[in-house]
Design goal:
By secondary structure, this protein is an alpha/beta fold. The protein has helices spanning 16-27, 39-48, 62-76, 99-127, 148-168, 187-190, 195-198, 216-229, 238-241, and strands at residues 7-11, 31-36, 53-56, 81-84, 90-91, 130-135, 173-179, 192-193, 233-235. The structure holds NADP nicotinamide-adenine-dinucleotide phosphate.
Length: 247
């Protein structure tokens, strides 16, 4: 799908990958809807992006998600693209997982994107087309000790995305997944960690021969590619493409 003049909702637009994505789509003349909790950051960004709209919304709150979509429709009258990017990590050994933290990232990384999809699908169907991009993670291509909460929830999002892609094909609504590799954002800082894992901060990890981290701008280009091509999966880094699940 072409993005010029199209209305593009980007959740988690206040920082990192979402921020870079908002700038890139605005540069391509989309009408970007900037969604996150940090009002000040969104308002400042909106001033710099023509035809943009900032909406404060907690993506773990079903009522706020409904209100946000209504506001987009009353402002622009249509929705062409939804980018479910808002997210947070939770690193814990399985035996130490704390239920409130697990439920929090389940609500943010899985339920929020599903609810947002449910809100936009009827509108996209009415319009005769649409594109939905869900941000997955390269960690779903591997089994990494200490990452089962986050990877499992992002894997659930993968399955829901692929399945809904089949369900929505005849409505000309393309559901795509973008898999970021390690990306230089505040993600690691914002990741919830169990006490044992917070002692071994990522700065001290030895990533051996792994490729260097990606920039958020690189991932933003992959998100634009997913919208333009409608491909089911786009990998931010070729390293992930060959990442076979191994036990
Ligand atoms: N960076 C990586 O290495 C990496 C790797 C793989 C996948 N990813 C995925 O890429 C996506 C973007 O992450 P990032 O790296 O850009 O992280 P980030 O810099 O921490 O940004 C996260 C964004 O999500 C928003 N957010 C967090 N909680 C929210 C909530 N309850 N409601 C609404 N918005 C919320 C934040 O805004 P507010 O705080 O203002 O609400 C922020 O804009 C995530 O889905 C993440 O899982 C990242």
């Amino acid at each position: 799908m072409e993005v010029k003049d199209n209305v593009v909702i980007i959740t988690g637009a206040s920082s990192g990958i979402g921020l870079a994505t908002a700038k890139l789509f605005a540069k391509n003349k989309s009408k970007v809807v900037l969604v996150a909790r940090s009002k000040e950051k969104l308002d400042k960004l909106a001033v710099t992006l023509p035809n943009s709209l900032a909406i404060v919304c907690d993506m773990t709150n079903p009522h706020q998600i409904k209100k946000m979509i209504k506001k987009v429709l009353s402002n622009f009258g249509k929705i062409d693209v939804l980018i479910n990017n808002a997210g947070q990590g939770y690193n814990s050994l399985l035996e130490e997982i704390e239920l409130p933290k697990l439920r929090h990232i389940f609500d943010l990384d899985f339920v929020g994107p599903i609810l947002a999809m449910q809100e936009v699908i009827p509108q996209m169907r009415k319009q005769g087309q649409g594109a939905i991009v869900n941000l997955s993670s390269g960690t779903t291509r591997m089994y990494l000790p200490g990452m089962s909460p986050y990877s499992s929830i992002k894997t659930a999002l993968n399955v829901a995305s692929h399945t809904s892609r089949l369900e929505l094909a005849e409505d000309n609504i393309r559901v795509s997944l973008v898999y970021p590799y390690m990306t230089a954002t505040d993600f690691e800082k914002n990741t919830l960690k169990s006490p044992r894992l917070s002692q071994s901060a990522s700065e001290n990890k030895d990533f051996g021969d792994l490729p260097p981290v990606d920039s958020p701008e690189k991932v933003a280009k992959m998100i634009l590619k997913a919208v333009k091509t409608g491909k089911p999966e786009v990998f931010a880094n070729p390293y992930l493409e060959k990442g076979e699940l191994q036990v």
